[in-house]
Amino acid sequence: MSIPDFNQTIPIDHVGVEERISRLNSRSIKRESKVQALKMALNMMDLTTLEGKDSAGKVIQLCQKAKRPHPPMPDLPTVAAVCVYPSMVSLVKEQVKGTDVKVASVATAFPSGQAPLSVKLDDTRFAVSEGADEIDMVISRGAFLSGEYTKVFDEIAAIKEACGDAHLKVILETGELHTYENVRKASDLAMHAGADFIKTSTGKVSPAATQPVTLVMLEAIRDYYHETGTMIGMKPAGGIRKAKQAIQYLVLVKETLGAAWLNNKYFRFGASSLANDVLMQIVKQQTGVYQSPNYFSVD
Amino acid sequence: MSEATETKDIYKPTSPNSKLDFASVWEYASAPQDASFAEVKDRYELFINGEFIEPSKGRYFKSLNPATEEEIADIAEATQEDVDNAVKAARKAFEGEWSSISGKERAKYLYRIARMIQERSRELAVLETMDGGKPIRESRDVDIPLVAAHFFYYAGWADKLEYAFPGRTPEPIGVCGQIIPWNFPLLMLAWKIAPALACGNTVVLKPAETTSLTAMKFAEIVRDAGLPAGVINIVTGAGQTGAEIVNHKDIDKIAFTGSTNVGKIIRKAVAGTDKRYTLELGGKGALVIFDDAPIDQAVEGIINAIYFNQGHVCCAGSRLMVQEGVADKVIRKLKDRLETLIVGDPLDKNTDVGAINSQQQYETVNKYLEVGVEEGADIYQSKCSIPEQGFFIRPTLFTNVAQSNRIVQEEIFGPVLTVQTFRTADEAIQKANNTPYGLASGVWTDKGSKIFKMGSSMRSGVVWANTYNKFDPTSPFGGYKESGVGREGGMHGLAAYTKI
After folding, report:
1. What is the distance in angstroms between the Cα of B192 and the nearest Cα belonging to chain A?
2. Average of pLDDT values for B178-187?
3. Which residue of A has its CA nearest to B4?
4. What is the pLDDT of residue B480?
5. How many CB pairs below 8 Å do chains A and B form together?
6. Chain B residues lying within 8 Å of A102, measured CB to CB
């Protein structure tokens, strides 16, 4: 496999991308396929809290939610991971011990990435040493936008090395890349540099994840898979608040990449408030009526 | 990662021709459109002079649901006497009330019809799908909205005709005989009737024999709208009924959409008479993809060009020409995309490709599949399951084809695409134009100058750039060469229904 010339641009027709999205959104997901989708979505979620005011108490509660999303329904799957800042990693590690829930940590001067590589590497090594299973790094958007593709590539490769066994998710921050061509280029660059996952957004920049951007990234993953045989994961993050949106994302995955990606090893949702809407829909599918939001814990 | 290991174990590719598995793990449950509210009578009569009347010979034929092969209703067969009565009613209306009212009044009727179509859009969509086999997604989102749009658009022209032809005095032609096909039953009716009425003509319209149902529903709308008797007459029947219209001495204009063969017969029949005619006939559209095209969106364009409405589209893009450098990639992506097309119950909201319109067409398409294989082409079909009952054909593509192959030369009118490669733009143009047809074609490239070069070199009525099958009432539509005579739609469509 040769590394592509990132000075070349792969053309993307934005009208075509958005038409494809509206066609995929016309899929009607009902009954048992809806229940299955809701449970998959729950199981693919990275429950996230990334605030300056995060406390140990809040993080512990979030971990409880991750392990048992809705205690009245003990058979529900766990979420995929809890995603926090490096300082909270050891706490989460302890809380989720013995479960399927992974510990994910943002690193590399999240969310701006405005720090020297040495600082980013230290940040990453610290999170890994504290017990993170997964590292969510940000790319240097400034370098990318100014055309310093080699610099961005080398940074990702260096962070990947610092991750050791931890999985690396590369956040493109698509809201700052502005064109689908840039999203495609950044996706290709991240995958070739060693990303296990590519991820849309930090959640700190608007717009965060959108369906058209996600489709462009999924198509990049598909082409990379056909070229190399390696499956790369996808994580849209930020702005996905409703169960219906989550199902629409799953439709994109199913019809672009297929069944092999429909699990939390290859697809994640980065979200903080999506879980409760998904839970509410699951309960509604079981009981036939919507419950009050007060019946679901807000963590 | 126990969860992931588990899911990895259950992952088994199900489509042997594709590395990706689009079938297992999560399947969509059926999502059928409720059809119970759509009232269907056991029997439909002829609509002549504002009344529903029995056919003079008392003969009826059956209309089938091509997805189930079940009978939907009996449809009256109009014979010479009925056609004659319809023409007389149209003549009387033309010389009476209809020609004395103003354009503004005609517009009111057209607006009223348009609004009534919108009000009954769900019912019309369901019936269009039941009678013709097209997916409800298309009849609901494409056909019926466009039908209403056509009536709204031409309603707007009815009192502004002198602005369409500055310095002239446009006059109506008279009684128009209109014969429409089965692929877009109500939409083709709208394309024919809306401009005819806007210009002050009266009509005798014959729907295709396999898809009369929505035309008869439309007749109910016409009656409810209070349109003067005889302005619109609808006679149902097969080819013989059509011939009675074409050969009727008191018809001033023939408007036909259908096959090139029938178009030639009509042209012979009206030769030497003073009948005017417009013909919208077959096609064998070329889709040209350059190596600088946005490939994923181009693939989506191809899917839309050939598998829309089961390929029963006269302007379908059925010949793909792809520049050699990206041919393998495009074919691979096409095959992947084919696997995600959902084929089956047209009333299911998730169905992408419905039923072939009739047994006759089903046999025609299957014959061409055999021809293609005999000609030595490589056939690829999606692995989807198809219902046992009903006329269904898997989306198909042929690679390794030659320009001389029948499947490249002849219109198949089904979900069948041929794929050729080219090296230079000149070669693509030459191959694209090397056909008796010239209705529509498509070009995909990121470069604007290439679009203009191709657009002016390809001999077809429509050239879509980086998209396909986009319709709008404001845009004229029609063919070069054996694809037809005259234009429908837009301001150009008015010329076909006026004497200037």
Report:
1. 29
2. 98
3. A265
4. 96
5. 103
6. 1
Nearest by CB to A28, from B292, B340, B350: name it: B350
In a domain, A295, yes or no: no
> Cβ contacts (< 8 Å) between B349 and chain A: which residues?
26-28
pLDDT band at A272 (very low <50, low <70, confident <90, very high): confident
pLDDT score of B13: 43
Q: Which of these is catalytic: A46, A136, A196, A277?
A: A136
CA distance A157 to chain B (A): 24
Contacts of B29 in chain A (CB under 8 A): 29-34
Q: How many domains, in total, are found in chain A? A: 1
- Is the CB of residue B328 less than 8 Å away from at least one CB of chain A? no
B5-24 pLDDT tens trace: 444 344 444 444 458 999 88
* Residue of A12, A29, A258 lying closest to B294 (CB–CB): A12
Partner-chain contact B11 A29, CB within 8 Å: no
Task: Just list the catalytic residues of B.
Answer: 280, 314
pLDDT of residue B18: 55
ipTM value of the model?
Answer: 0.95
A270 touches A83 (CB < 8 A): yes
SS3 readout for chain B = CHHHHHHHHHCCCCCCCCCCCCCCCCCCCCCECCCCCCCCCCEECEEECCEEECCCCCCEEEEEECCCCEEEEEEECCCHHHHHHHHHHHHHHHHCHHHHCCHHHHHHHHHHHHHHHHHCHHHHHHHHHHHHCCCHHHHHHHHHHHHHHHHHHHHHHCCCHHHHCCCCCCEECCEEEEECCCCCHHHHHHHHHHHHHHCCCEEEEECCCCCCHHHHHHHHHHHHCCCCCCCEEECCCCHHHHHHHHCCCCCCEEEEECCHHHHHHHHHHHCCCCCEEEEECCCCEEEEECCCCCHHHHHHHHHHHHCHHHHCCCCCEEEEEEEHHHHHHHHHHHHHHHHCCCECCCCECCCCECCCCCHHHHHHHHHHHHHHHHCCCEEEECCCCCCCCCCCCCCEEEECCCCCCHHHHCCCCCCEEEEEEECCHHHHHHHHHCCCCCCEEEEECCCHHHHHHHHHHCCCCEEEECCCCCCCCCCCECCCHHHEECCECCCHHHHCCEEC
Average of per-residue pLDDT across A17-42: 97
Q: What is the pLDDT of residue A1?
A: 64
Residues of B in contact with A77 (CB under 8 A): 3
CATH of the domain at A87: 3.20.20.70
**Domains in chain B and their CATH numbers?**
43-281+483-499 (3.40.605.10), 285-465 (3.40.309.10)
Min Cα distance B299 → chain A (Å) is 10
Query: Does a structural domain hold residue A117?
Result: yes
A194 belongs to a structural domain: yes
Residue A196 is a catalytic residue:
no
Chain A: residue nearest B350 by CA?
A27
| pLDDT for position B19 | 82
pLDDT band at A262 (very low <50, low <70, confident <90, very high): very high
Q: Is B140's Cβ below 8 Å from some Cβ in A? A: no
Share of chain B above pLDDT 90, in %: 94
Give the active site residue among A169, A196, A199, A277.
A199
User: Does the beta carbon of B17 lie under 8 angstroms from any beta carbon of chain A?
Assistant: no
Q: B349: nearest CA in chain A?
A: A28
pLDDT digits (tens, 9 = 90+) for A103-142: 999 999 999 999 999 999 999 999 999 999 999 999 999 9
Q: Is B291 near chain A, with CB under 8 Å?
A: no
Q: Which of B26, B30, B296 sits opposite A262 (nearest CB)?
A: B26
How large is the average pLDDT for residues B183-188?
98
